[in-house]
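Deliverable D4.2, example record:
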Amino acid sequence: MFDLATRRIVGATVFMLATVITIGMVWLTEEQRMARYEAIHKAKAIENGALIYEQYCVTCHGSQGEGVPGKGPDLNPGVFQHYEELKQTQNYANSLRNFIMLSIAAGRPIRSTYRSEEIYAEPMPTWSQDFGGPLRSDQIENLVEFILNWQTAAAAPTPPPAFEAMGSDLTKPLPPGDPKRGEALWNQEVKQASGLPASCKACHSLNPGEVLVGPSLAGIATTAAQRIQASDYKGQAKTPEEYIRESIQQPNAYIVDPNQFAAAPGVSKMPATLGNQMSAQDLADLIAFLMTLK
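Output generated by the structure prediction step:
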């Protein structure tokens, strides 16, 4: 029989061993538990970020980050490619997360970005409340998580299909236009031959008198003929179709209201690079649709 002192020693030893074993088991599983917690937290942040992106970002950057010509550059994969370029060419030392976060929070004060061939109608605004924007810091972080979620898919981007761009050349012949496909291009139900969505409705309304960034195109088939005959036009004989084509490919040739629709003297708010995104068929179809708007 053990005396009382011996029983106490044995009991204390057993308790200590049980405590050590329990702590050891908790320590062994803590890393897994924290990993699960972080995964759940990240998934929730991405989900919240997707909702914020849908509300604030889709108009300029597209639903999948593919960009909207004339409104905003692609983020998927553009933002990741640009970050790597900055690291390699300018020794940029900040992290990818901070690079994206600062771009969203503080905005970009110019109308061009890493897509140097494009000029956008408006600069990237500030989004953080710290800089006068509408979003809290946690919302900015969620938005960053959502954008970062594209990075794996962006590592090996699929090159856009080859196509012959119309550019600003008004002499290139156009095929017969399909107004139904032109309407689908306008509504972004189909993409241009470049693989990019048409950006028309982002800046132009089809409701009479409604100004978004550019003038309303309600009744453009009729008003095109009137503008050709206006005293401030060039006096050149053009059909309404030719006027609309010139407006798309060479928007600086004639600015409807320079006080309202010019970004600078002689420079239209409408980007001069839209023809670089369009094939002859794209342009013909879009003109054919606009000519139905009497």
